[in-house]
């Protein structure tokens, strides 16, 4: 069913709002993405890093009303909210948890359903279209998020149900894995720098925006080409999904060579994203959880890493 049309509720994420006259200016110094690139028709991926360039959160960000909204793993929202508020005290911006104000649906192969709601969404990734309080975002080819005000959610879900099968969150995450889009989870908080999740390859890092927290480390890694660990897509024959942060091993190296980022059940096997040492990934002898654990096999990602192109953002 992963290749057929469906919708599901994105219950695994919350919505952090930053509103007010200084919202974008304040966040420009906090986030990896360039707030100046956002518009009514353009969203972005992004991350917030520590001073050492390690990601505290990753998210999808878009303009809404008098500020911006960021969707991230629910468990990360409150810690990020509390931490950001410390830096916003002298800024004309207000930070709140707006998770209860929004219901978000994931739609796959379902552009016709969006059109029936007056949302003709372009094919370009990160494009945004709005109609009658609804917001649709293209998150990868044939996949879209639909953001709905909570008081409209039941009515919109009814309209979607009349046209589409209701799928599971697992199916949605499988599509995310196949799109090669990693995500920070509570167990991987402050574990990766953005390039380890290939965030720069999917538009989530700007190298032209100037300073932000962790920028020096992130930029140095890009320009000096010293990154030895990055995101890969793999398959695994096992009965139980590995949790984010589960270690991967290589008998050749005799030690841990990476961690699981995100996993979902596919039609035959488990599919997952993992950060791996490039040298070990090329060797191909990769095991889950222990040197003698279940074997993993590399799959292709739908994009190429291109440092010269990435630094033009």
From TrEMBL:
PANTHER family xref list: TRANSFERASE CAF17, MITOCHONDRIAL-RELATED
Q: Which InterPro entries match?
A: GcvT/YgfZ_C, YgfZ/GCV_T_CS, YgfZ/GcvT
Q: Which protein is depicted?
A: Folate-binding protein YgfZ
Can you name the source organism? Pseudomonas arsenicoxydans
Binding-site list for substrate: 145
Instruction: Name its GO BP terms in alphabetical order.
Output: iron-sulfur cluster assembly
Q: Gene3D superfamilies of this UniProt entry?
A: 2.40.30.160, 3.30.70.1630, Aminomethyltransferase beta-barrel domains
């Amino acid at each position: 069913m992963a290749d057929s049309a469906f919708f599901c509720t994105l219950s695994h994420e919350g919505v952090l709002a930053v509103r007010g006259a200084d919202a974008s200016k304040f966040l420009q110094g906090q986030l990896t993405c360039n707030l100046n690139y956002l518009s009514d028709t353009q969203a972005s991926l992004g991350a917030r890093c520590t001073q050492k360039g390690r990601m505290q959160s990753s998210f999808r960000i878009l303009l809404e009303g008098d500020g911006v909204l960021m969707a991230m793993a629910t468990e990360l929202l409150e810690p990020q909210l509390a931490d950001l508020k410390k830096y916003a005290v002298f800024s004309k911006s207000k930070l709140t948890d707006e998770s209860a104000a929004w219901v978000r649906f994931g739609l796959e192969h379902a552009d016709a359903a969006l059109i029936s709601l007056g949302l003709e969404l372009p094919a370009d990734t990160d494009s945004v279209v709005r109609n009658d309080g609804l917001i649709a975002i293209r998150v990868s080819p044939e996949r879209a998020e639909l953001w709905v005000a909570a008081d409209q959610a039941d009515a919109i879900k009814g309209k979607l149900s009349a046209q589409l099968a209701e799928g599971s969150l697992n199916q949605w995450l499988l599509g995310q894995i196949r799109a090669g889009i990693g995500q920070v989870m509570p167990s991987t908080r402050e574990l990766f720098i953005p390039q380890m999740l290939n965030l720069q390859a999917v538009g989530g890092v700007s190298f032209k925006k100037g300073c932000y927290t962790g920028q020096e480390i992130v930029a140095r890694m890009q320009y000096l080409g010293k990154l030895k660990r990055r995101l890969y897509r793999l398959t695994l024959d096992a009965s139980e999904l590995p949790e984010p942060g589960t270690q991967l091993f290589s008998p050749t190296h005799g030690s841990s060579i990476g961690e699981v980022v995100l996993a979902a059940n596919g039609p035959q096997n488990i599919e997952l994203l993992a950060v791996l040492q490039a040298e070990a990934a090329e060797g191909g002898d990769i095991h889950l959880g222990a040197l003698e654990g279940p074997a993993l096999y590399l799959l292709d990602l739908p994009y190429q890493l291109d440092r010269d192109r990435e630094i033009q953002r």
